[in-house]
Write a structure and sequence with these properties.
4-stranded mixed sheet; 5-stranded mixed sheet; single chain; 19 helices; alpha/beta; globular
């Protein structure tokens, strides 16, 4: 199980010396199942489509809307059950491991060995991109999840001070509410609720986060500090508008972009929405770590998991894997997507201020041992435990149980999911 990201320092130098693109396919096609359907995500994915098309590989798109990927995994199960898996599937963490155990994934060793992936892809990502020593997925990026995105005009109207702790965050949200806008843009979906909870728990300290979501310690999950974390979630709920139920994350981002809301707690994929809307960091929006979490990072990594395909499709699949790991793609894709490269040798020169901060924060958190897989996004615990936590968090966020009940149920839910 992943304990923390052992990522190397993101070098500010040039691209990997001696790297040259490899051609595996002059023709063929790839069918790609993914959930990148928002404007910013689609713009980033287009970078990969165009790279493949320039090499004669046809892209067959299979988008499944739903920002957390649950619907995509449902669609995938139907395809695999029917004996007709796609060429490649966007997947996260323990979901990749679960599919690998079923013996249906492909082998990317031919390209990975030739291009030296072992040397440049962080070990913690390899823990999921490999199974039984074989490469089965190509990591696209590293996202971090404990961000807050703030409308600059709304921040200025609330006093211009970026909040550095919980009390200052609440004060900012109170001022935004008094100014007549929705303080916190949020979508009422289980994974989004859990994303908030991830950051809130991390703000109580990395030891607390690790004990709760990595070690799954019952005393931590049900203790007084967890009750306080749930109390903070209740407070955050008071800043969310009444129409939040079922709202997609990118629509919440749009509220901040348009000045209808002051802030959004969301992973750095949200930055792609701001960039797509023509906004600039520092001028139109501000990016900060959730107050109390600066110096620590929770992460996920989007990967394209490859399935077993016929010989007629194998070359195109390998070409896609090679293109994903090429340094030029890693830079150009992540600049658009809002994330940072999944290779340790890609410079930050093309990235904006928020991107440079993301790369710097990752390196610093790794060096201090404060970089952890995100519970909310499938890199801390297996899906069954994650979903059990989701259920408790969402029930509490919707007012069905109070904070003390939520902490108690968290213990029970995790114990039951562990079996």
């Amino acid at each position: 199980m992943l304990r923390k990201l052992l990522i190397g320092t993101m070098l500010a130098g040039g691209l990997v010396a001696g790297y040259s693109a490899t051609t595996y396919a002059a023709g063929g096609s790839v069918e790609v199942l993914h959930w990148w359907t928002s404007g910013g995500e689609a713009a980033a994915l287009d970078v990969l489509k165009k790279k493949l098309e320039s090499q004669g590989v046809t892209w067959k798109d299979m988008p499944v809307a739903g920002g957390g990927g649950e619907q995509a995994m449902t669609a995938l199960r139907a395809r695999v059950t029917a004996g007709d898996p796609p060429t490649a599937v966007q997947a996260l963490g323990f979901d990749i491991t679960d599919w690998a155990k079923q013996g249906v994934v492909g082998d990317l060793g031919e390209v990975a060995d030739k291009e030296g992936w072992d040397k440049v892809i962080p070990t913690a990502l390899q823990n999921f991109a490999k199974y039984d020593g074989k490469w089965i997925a190509a990591p696209v990026n590293v996202h971090s999840t404990n961000w807050v995105w703030i409308n600059k005009k709304a921040l200025d109207a609330a006093g211009s001070k970026e909040p550095a702790n919980w009390d200052e965050f609440v004060a900012m949200l109170d001022k935004m509410k008094a100014n007549g806008i929705t303080p916190l843009a949020h979508g009422g979906q289980a994974w989004q609720d859990a994303t908030l909870f991830d950051a809130v728990v991390l703000s109580f300290g990395t030891d607390f986060y690790k004990s709760a979501f990595i070690d799954l310690d019952p005393a931590t999950l049900g203790g007084d500090k967890m009750v306080e974390a749930f109390d903070r979630m209740k407070k955050l709920r008071s800043y969310v508008d009444d129409d939040f139920s079922g709202r997609d994350w990118n629509l919440a981002s749009a509220m901040v972009i348009q000045g209808k809301a002051g802030a959004q707690m969301m992973g750095d994929w949200a930055k792609g929405e701001f960039l797509k809307a023509g906004q600039k960091p520092g001028t139109d929006f501000v990016c900060i770590r959730f107050p109390g979490t600066q110096g620590a990072v929770t992460f996920n990594s989007d990967m394209f998991m490859m399935f077993k395909v016929g010989d007629d499709k194998k070359a195109a699949q390998l070409q896609m894997a090679s293109d994903i790991e090429s340094p030029d793609f890693q830079s150009s894709f992540n600049v658009v997507k809002g994330s940072v490269p999944a290779r340790t040798d890609v410079p930050d020169t093309a990235f904006d201020d928020c991107g440079k901060k993301g790369i710097k924060d990752l390196a610093e958190a790794n060096a201090s041992g404060k970089l952890f897989g995100s519970m909310a996004h499938g890199y801390a615990v297996p899906a069954a435990i994650k979903n059990a936590i989701y259920d408790v968090v969402t029930r509490h966020f919707n007012g069905d149980i109070d904070s003390k009940e939520a902490a108690k149920e968290l213990v029970d839910a995790v114990a039951a999911a562990k079996g």
